[in-house]
Design goal:
With 898 residues, the chain is α/β, with parallel strands linked by helices. The chain has 35 helices and 31 strands. Among the domains are: 90 residues, ATP-grasp fold, B domain (D-amino Acid Aminotransferase, Chain A, domain 1), CATH 3.30.470.20; 135 residues, 3-Layer(bba) Sandwich (Glucose Oxidase, domain 1), CATH 3.50.30; 303 residues, Alpha-Beta Barrel (TIM Barrel), CATH 3.20.20. Helix content is 47%, strand content 16%. The protein has an eight-stranded mixed β-sheet with strand order 12-22-21-14-15-16-17-13. Strands 24-25-26-27-28-29-30-31 form an eight-stranded parallel β-barrel, surrounded by six helices. It has a five-stranded antiparallel β-sheet with strand order 1-2-5-3-4. The structure holds adenosine-5'-diphosphate and magnesium ion (MG) (2 copies).
Amino acid sequence: MGRYVYDFTKGRRDMADLLGGKGANLAEMTRLGLPVPQGFVVTTEACRAFLTSGTEPEGMSREISRHLSAVEAAAGRVLGQPDGPLLLSVRSGARFSMPGMMETVLDIGLNDASVVGLAKSSGNERFAWDSYRRLVQMFGSTVMGVDAELFERAMARLKETRGAPDDLHLDASDLAGLVETYKDLIHDATGDDFPQSPAEQLRRAVLAVFGSWNGERARLYRRREHIADDLGTAVTVQRMVFGNLGPDSGSGVAFTRDPATGRSGLYGDYLSDAQGEDVVAGIRNPVPLAGLERLDPASYQQLREHMRTLENHYRDLCDIEFTIERGKLWMLQTRVGKRTAGAAFAIAAELVDEGLITADEALSRVSGDGLARLMFPRFDTTVTGDPLAHGLPASPGAAVGAAVFDSAEAVRRAAAGEKVVLVRQETTPDDLPGMVAAQAVLTSRGGKTSHAAVVARGMGKVCVCGAEELTVDTGARRFTTRGGTVVEEGTVISVDGSAGAVYPGEAPLVDSAVMRYLETGTCAEQSDEVVDAVARSLQLADRKRRLEVRANADTPEDAARARRFGAQGVGLCRTEHMFLGERRKLVEQMILADDDDTRERALDALLPLQREDFVGILEAMDGLPVTIRLLDPPLHEFLPDRTELAVRIATAEAHGDLPDPHDTELLDAVNRMHEENPMLGLRGVRLGLVVPGLVAMQVRAIAEAVVERRRAGGAPEAEIMVPLVGAVEELRIEREEVERVLAEVSAESGVAVTCPVGTMIELPRAALTAGRIAGQAEFFSFGTNDLTQTTWGFSRDDVEAAFFSAYLDKGVFAASPFETIDREGVGRLVSLAVAEGRAARPDLTIGVCGEHGGDPESVRFFHGAGLDYVSCSPFRIPVARLEAGRAALPETGPSDSR
Ligand code: ADP
Ligand code: MG
Ligand code: MG
């Protein structure tokens, strides 16, 4: 066997690295005995050799000739022979399918002589010319690089002069004329002629596939997806079978189950007298697969059997391309098919019930991202009608609002209480205020890493981007759909960020059945297979997982919801909001106090209020740990805005009035406390060390809340967490204060209050000295938001909107490090701190409370790093449970789903 070419009979499904996905699966179908037209695969290794040397690898053409001879011998005809030629298709196929790779060329081997032979041998002149014009068109555009539009326009012109409603109404001589027109087009555009030699056609097509690996779109895609540039693509060369031989022929696509709902059955489309992509290209209307049963019952039955064979073999939903040539069925492609999030759950559960896969495998095939999508309300697609446009589902959810075309208008209308959707070609950092004000963002350009997509995801805002069917005219303040519908500013539209669709008007919403189940713990009366499947996956995940899942919750309501979603405690309770609202006055007094008495009075007034908050949360999480973080942000965040104050004072002075003395006092304080980089300023543990009484008040509120809950018969489990520690000494000093107050409250109340004291690890220095810090900490909780900021030197609010989309485009990282943990950098600090912390204190409890705790990829990392729990926002809890369970499954083989 040669190095560069594999016959279909010599390959297997698991050889996708070498044969590409398409080639490996064709080989697998051949091995299974399904009717696959003969062929061979030129390997990715040949492509790699070509890409390195820039020339055809030594010996490749000899190998191709040898394999071609075998195909010719079996067919009893030679490639392009003038009387009844063998024809070939040349198809690209890499390990991962990617945009920008060369399109398939069909009917290789036809030329001015063999087209006549084909007409004779098939007894169908029209068919022969139709095939020839397809070859010249495809070869001209994909191999020779002529603008495809030119061919399409020539075809449209011809149809118009002939009064032909579709391609079937063009006869042999029309098509023969078209071939001449196409050839002229090629000559005019390239100065070169369409090659008449079949061998040259084949050779150039194969090399063009190799060349397309380095096409601009493919390179951009790989950079964004972090797919290695040196994988290369394979080329599949296969004997043609013909669906365009008349009404007893045709081509189709099929799914072994409904990819939308997961229900089993045969789904797909069939178009008679058609070749290749005609069935999906919308040139004529296909019939649903069931219609094939009437047209050709024998082929239909065979197709059913083959599909059953494939599904049993692949043990998953397969999608299939097939062609019928004069009543004979041929299989042309299969792969594990894409599906909706709901279908993924339903199919996995059903395959378990059918005994095809194990429950573990089912769990490995569903995902937290999919579950998250199922938790959003969605538009009721049974009544929405057709979408105005499709785009990329960049940030999930469903939103309704009036279309507006710039940021200022969005802000203006939103301030007046109107719901708006910001529509732009693309967004830039200048659009930020408008994005904040809008319900959803819709762009006509840009991919999933465009500015709009990145920022919207960061804000949890619905976004559809790259809706290229739309022409957005910002100047005229309207957009136009492909169908010609004009949507003026102010018109209400509905944006589905989960499906990537835009609807006219206010589309009605339906609640998520999955969400209802998660909220109530029960399924709806009438059984819903998706909800049942989600429930089963979550139950299994809970049995498998080693990570506990806690919630980030600051209020009793959030804590209660989190508990319903399965939280095993609160991993982060922030006290900030307890200092806002009506309490702001008290906080102001505390900050402005220039003597101990005033300060103490303010703190005393805050104490009972804080205590009540803690009582509520401890009650909602009774019996489970609640980790309360002491005040973290810099104090000036609780004072009024500096510019606002200055303006107020200046205005008063301009009117000749005396400014409000309180304003002047406040401005003084604000100026005193002003920091150039508040993120790196007086905050966290530093506050506690320099503002007298602040920590004592908070700890007292916690301890008294514990006492109150105990007296009420509860089982409160408060834990006290110190933020932003960088040196063990900071924690030691603060800890002394905490313990002093706990002892005080215990003595006063007669109830022994002990709370574990721990720290956040959110500075590189904390991670680097974790062993020493563990000496003073009973637990660690990684604050991965700040740890990412401080490790990268990124201020999140500044960098995300400004240049993250550019960084993602350039492939600096494949995902924002604020969404998915940066394993190499931040992750390394985490692992180091885990190892040194545990070495110093073996019973150290370790968790994570940054947003990464609810991100599927990151959860896998935290599982591997040996953490005890992840903590995330209540809505992410089911996602984290599922992913923690999946992370605990034994490694499975590579999946075909990509
Ligand atoms: P894609 O990756 O875009 O699906 P394919 O390589 O599958 O491209 O080919 C495009 C179309 O041509 C498909 O409809 C496919 O079924 C059809 N096709 C490919 N090879 C052959 C062949 N040997 N005979 C008939 N049709 C073919
Ligand atoms: Mg295909
Ligand atoms: Mg922090």
